[in-house]
Design a protein that fits this description.
The chain is an alpha/beta fold. The protein contains 13 helices and six strands. α3 links the parallel β3 and β4. α3 packs across α12.
Length: 249
């Protein structure tokens, strides 16, 4: 039958990946003689991050906030005459929280260079970090038991902390922020710098999801990267240096 046979099509379009089932996708890495196959558990990742499969290196972000921060980092690089991460073959992928470790492992096993950008407040992820490191995944994370919101409120200069608070008020309303923090006025939160207020704001930002959107993450990242000269010795500076080193290598 002349209608039977195989047709090979080459494309850079991500639409093909989105339409296919995970079990029908095979990756051929130049460094391996074997095809890598994905199981059905990877379906959500493929459909949410198809562009990542066309990259050489992938930053897997634990959630939307981290994706926004990485976008801000790329904007910061471009503004300072550094290469756009896309030119260096770097893509961002949403690790979707509970699937984060599995996504990191699958991408690494299929031949991608992987950097995991995550918090340090998830016990399940923390328990798997050594396994990720043993597989060659680079991890950029926060201080022990801290989320990125808490790290930002801990490390940023006080003037930037107040800007984070103003942004939260703008997005959530003054009344809701005061209710969450059990304060009677904003002046109690921003009048005078103190470790206690920093901790309170970081804890409530995490608990109530003040910045759990990509655009919020971009705002956080802009404040972060424009404060680098004031962050020597801080974890935020170490995270920036580690991300930048991995991107440029």
């Amino acid at each position: 039958d002349c209608n039977q046979g195989q047709v090979f099509i080459t494309t850079h379009s991500s639409h093909i990946l989105v339409e296919l089932e995970a079990k029908d996708i095979f990756l051929k890495n130049i460094a391996s003689e074997q095809l890598y196959s994905y199981n059905k558990d990877f379906q959500g990742c493929i459909r949410k991050n198809p562009e990542a499969f066309f990259a050489k290196k992938i930053i897997i972000c634990e959630g939307s906030t981290e994706i926004g921060i990485c976008r801000a980092l790329n904007n910061f690089r471009i503004k300072n005459n550094q290469d756009n991460i896309a030119i260096l073959g770097v893509a961002l992928a949403d690790g979707q929280g509970s699937n984060f470790v599995e996504y990191c492992l699958h991408f690494k096993e299929s031949g991608f260079d992987v950097c995991a950008f995550c918090d340090s407040d998830d016990v399940a992820i923390n328990n798997k970090k050594q396994e990720l490191r043993d597989c060659g995944v680079i991890i950029v994370d926060c201080d022990n038991n801290k989320a990125i919101e808490q790290q930002l409120f801990d490390d940023l200069p006080w003037a930037k902390v107040k800007r984070l608070l103003r942004y939260a008020v703008k997005e959530k309303s003054e009344q809701s922020i005061l209710a969450m923090t059990a304060k009677s006025s904003l002046e109690e939160l921003k009048e005078q710098e103190s470790p206690g207020i920093r901790t309170l704001l970081g804890d409530k930002a995490k608990e109530h999801g003040w910045y759990k959107r990509i655009d919020h993450g971009e705002k956080l990242g802009k404040l972060w990267f424009n404060s680098l000269s004031d962050l020597e010795g801080k974890t935020l500076k170490i995270q920036y240096d580690n991300l930048t080193s991995w991107i440029n290598r």
